[in-house]
Amino acid sequence: MNRIAIGSLIIGFVAVLVLLVLSLSARGDDLKDINWLAEDINSGGVIDNAQTTLMVNADGSVTGSGGCNRFMSNASIDGSKITFNPTVATRMMCAPALMDQEQKFFSALEQARSYAIDAPTGKLLLHDEAGKVVARLARQD
After folding, report:
1. CA pair distance 96, 12, nearest whole angstrom
2. How many beta carbons lie within 10 A of that of residue 31, not counting itself?
3. Where in this chain does the record put each DUF306 domain (predicted)?
4. What is the CATH number of the domain that holds 93?
5. pLDDT band per the 50, 70, 90 thresholds, residue 78
6. Is residue 92 classed as helix, strand or coil in its secondary structure?
7. Residue 22 and residue 65 in one domain
8. Is the domain of 124 the same as that of 77?
């Protein structure tokens, strides 16, 4: 009886470890291949119809729109840590407010050091080195 109980405990412990490893290794896939729409940049809100978007592809390449210009970058993801390379964007001119928002968004991406998906809302939160949310994005369907 004792051997059966100990064996069951060991099997249960191994199962928990396997699930933990699988959940940690899947980290990063929860934000990839999803079109994200910016809802807030550095607590300053966003222009509603600007459509500032972000797409992190499975290979780490990043594309999107700053609200005026299309951009590209690359992201490095390790667990909940994330860094973005500087963006390369087209050079169209837009209204000054859109251009300002776009620059703030590009800056927020460069400041990002970690991310989280808020469980209740499903929002993508990008945090700077101090843990401050620099951008909040929603899934765009």
Report:
1. 60
2. 21
3. 30-137
4. 2.40.128.270
5. very high
6. coil
7. no
8. yes
